[in-house]
Amino acid sequence: MFFDYTCGFSNRARHWLDALDGVQVVWRPFSLLEQNRVGDGPPVFDRGALAENVSLIALAVHLAVGADGGNLDQYRRRMFTAWHEETGRLSTEDIVGFGRDAGMGGWDHDRAFAALAGEHAAAKQLGVFGTPTLVLDEEHTVFVKLESVPTADRAWQLWDQVHELTLGAPDLREWHRVLPEPKDVR
Fold first, then answer.
1. What burial class does residue 64 get, using C-beta atoms within 10 Å of its C-beta: 0-12 exposed, 13-18 middle, 19+ buried?
2. DSSP string for residues in 41-89
3. What are 159-186's pLDDT values in tens digits?
4. Overall pTM > 0.70
5. Hey, CA dihedral for 10, 15, 19, 25, is it positive or negative?
6. Computed from CA positions of residues 102, 106, 46, 128, in that sequence, does the dihedral angle turn out positive or negative?
7. Which of 140, 138, 144, 63 is nearest to 105 (CA)?
8. Are 142 and 136 in contact (CB under 8 A)?
9. Contact at 8 Å (CB) between 76 and 62?
10. How far apart are CA 50 and CA 65, in angstroms?
11. What burial class does residue 48 get, using C-beta atoms within 10 Å of its C-beta: 0-12 exposed, 13-18 middle, 19+ buried?
12. Complete domains list, the chain, with CATH
């Protein structure tokens, strides 16, 4: 699963996938900030104005926790909860603290950002353009945006349907549900 902590759809997907006992998910960062970068300037991972951007720090700490053998699930859940379900702004110190709580040994900004740039490049090679994106195998990658978190009894059914549509309909390249504009109620 390629994700970005700032993405509300990634947060919905984490609730959905966490409800699926027995499904092993590898969470891989993908920076929406880099994906949506305008112009030919340097990547957001290079030191500069965005060196302390908390969305990038959160993704880089994710990789540092994993590299240090820490508890990635603990960090991921804490980070998503803090970003989407708690009030207040997160600081670099908060995020690095979550990483340390999850077993990150040390924080090396340059090393972590280099790893983040590598993850982003690997995602791009797979055709990833947004989050959340599930990679089911080398040939089957699917961008999945949930309107809401499925109920516990619906989580497995949705998992099966995503697999069936992704694996069973290779000629279906893109599918998008079109929703009408909300009616003005006055």
1. buried
2. S--TTSSSTTTT-HHHHHHHHHHHHHHTT--HHHHHHHHHHHHHHS-S-
3. 999 999 988 888 887 777 777 777 776 6
4. yes
5. positive
6. negative
7. 63
8. yes
9. yes
10. 21
11. exposed
12. 2-168 (3.40.30.10)
Q: Which residues of 71-103 are buried (b: 16+ CB within 10 A; e: fewer)?
A: ebeebbbbbbebbbeeeeebebebbbbbbbebb
**Residues 32-62: pLDDT tens digits?**
999 998 888 888 888 665 677 899 999 999 9
In the structure encoding, which two tokens stand for residue 43, read together?
A: 């990547």
Return d(Cα 86, Cα 67) in angstroms, integer.
27
Alpha-carbon span 26 to 32, nearest angstrom: 18
In this structure, what DSSP letter does residue 132 have?
A: S
What would you report as the CA-atom Rg of the chain, rounded to the nearest whole angstrom? 17
Helix (H, G, I), strand (E, B) or coil at 143: strand
